[in-house]
Design goal:
By secondary structure, the protein is mostly helical. It is built from three helices and no strands.
């Protein structure tokens, strides 16, 4: 049988600042790398975005979908 591992949540009252930092660092680093990737991908479509500005309104939705 598989052993069930307990899920640790970032609780400010329960854990120290060091542990909270260690728990939050991986998602922040992943978000940073994905943000750089998205900006690189968006810069490749600069010509399309300059001609069709309305497409730029969907960029926040794409970023949200990547984060969710």
């Amino acid at each position: 049988m598989k052993s069930k591992q307990a899920v640790r949540y970032a609780d400010d009252d329960k854990y120290s600042i060091r542990i909270l930092g260690l728990m939050r660092t991986p998602p922040l680093l992943i978000g940073l790398v994905l943000g750089f990737f998205m900006s690189l991908a968006t810069s490749r479509f600069e010509e399309v975005l300059s001609k069709h500005v309305q497409v730029a309104f969907f960029i926040p939705f794409i970023v949200y979908m990547a984060d969710a």
